[in-house]
Write a structure and sequence with these properties.
single chain, 303 residues, alpha+beta, Beta-Lactamase, Alpha-Beta Plaits, 2 domains, 5-stranded antiparallel sheet, 5-stranded mixed sheet, 25% strand, elongated
Length: 303
């Protein structure tokens, strides 16, 4: 289950308006599409409560739902997904007819139920069902490592998500050196601990807009958003060093984790698949030439 920041990252790139409230209906997030449809800037709303009646949702009968019958409140209390057609108050005074979906959500590390509201103008709507489907699929994290998983990567590769806001990005392909030896010598419990320690090191040492993905087994992807090609090797070397410097003690013995890393660069999201292949080949070259090292693919070397 994603954190609030990960959910916000998704909503920044949706075609639907979205906002998030906590259990007390305090507004925590209000995305750019919501700003466009309502006329309100997010700073006008974040920290306020939906029952402050700023958006002043009414239904076909004119009932003021922010005060009585709030769909978000019902969603939070009943833990049910609701769909409605409502009319919200635009900042400039007119009413806007919107299709609304309200969704209960529980973030990682919290028992509190949050409310997510998605809405679009009626007659100008991108299929909101697709967004609902993607939200239901937001168990796009790996259970063991808590990093993003291949399902999330697939959403990017098929164009359903585009987290890249700039034209130059980096791709790192990591593979744990001699991982089989951890499992064969000490069992899968140690292997799982190796992956968990490595993943936490990655998570805490990449940028907020960077993505860390468990690609499969002991293989990982790091996608660096908005980075100069000349800086990709520096970041890759830093991650390699930090992983090697991580401490893992198991049954009284201290174990060192090393990784081989291949690196590439790409621009548009459509080029990501080729960048992954290039970084994978560079990683294999790192394996063949000594392990515990970074090898740059041609897309970086040619810059």
């Amino acid at each position: 289950m994603p954190t609030l920041n990960e959910l916000v990252t998704l909503f920044e790139h949706l075609n639907e308006a979205a906002y998030i409230v906590d259990q007390n209906r305090k507004i925590l997030y209000f995305n750019p599409v919501a700003e466009s449809i309502t006329g309100y800037d997010s700073k006008d709303l974040i920290g306020r409560h939906c029952y402050d009646n700023i958006l002043n949702h009414i239904d076909e009968e004119g009932n003021h739902l922010c005060l009585f019958g709030c769909p978000l409140q019902t969603t939070i209390e009943a833990k049910e997904i609701l769909k409605n057609t409502l009319y919200l108050h635009h900042k400039y005074g007119h009413r806007v007819k919107v299709d609304v979906v309200t969704i209960p959500y529980v973030f990682t590390g919290s028992d509190e139920v949050f409310g997510v509201e998605l809405f679009n103008e009626v007659g100008d709507s991108e299929d909101i069902a697709e967004t609902l489907k993607s939200l239901k699929a937001l168990n796009q994290t790996d259970d063991l490592t808590k990093l993003l998983n291949r399902r999330h990567l697939s959403q990017i590769l098929t164009g359903k998500l585009n987290p890249f806001t700039f034209k130059v990005n980096g791709c790192l392909f990591l593979d744990v050196d001699d991982f089989r030896a951890f499992n064969n010598t000490y069992g899968h419990e140690l292997g799982d601990k190796v992956l968990s320690v490595l993943s936490e090191t990655i998570r805490k040492n990449i940028g907020v807009k960077d993505l860390a993905i468990r690609y499969g087994g002991e293989e990982f992807l790091i996608i660096l958003n908005n980075i100069k090609p000349s800086n990709i090797k520096r970041i890759a070397e830093k991650i390699r060093m930090l992983i090697k410097a991580s401490k893992l003690t198991y049954e009284g013995l201290e174990h060192t984790i090393t990784v081989s890393i291949g690196a590439s660069t790409f621009g548009e999201v459509e080029a990501l698949e080729e960048a992954i292949k290039e970084a994978d080949l560079a990683m294999l070259e790192a394996k063949k030439t000594g392990k515990d090292k970074v090898v740059l693919g041609p897309s970086i070397s040619n810059h």
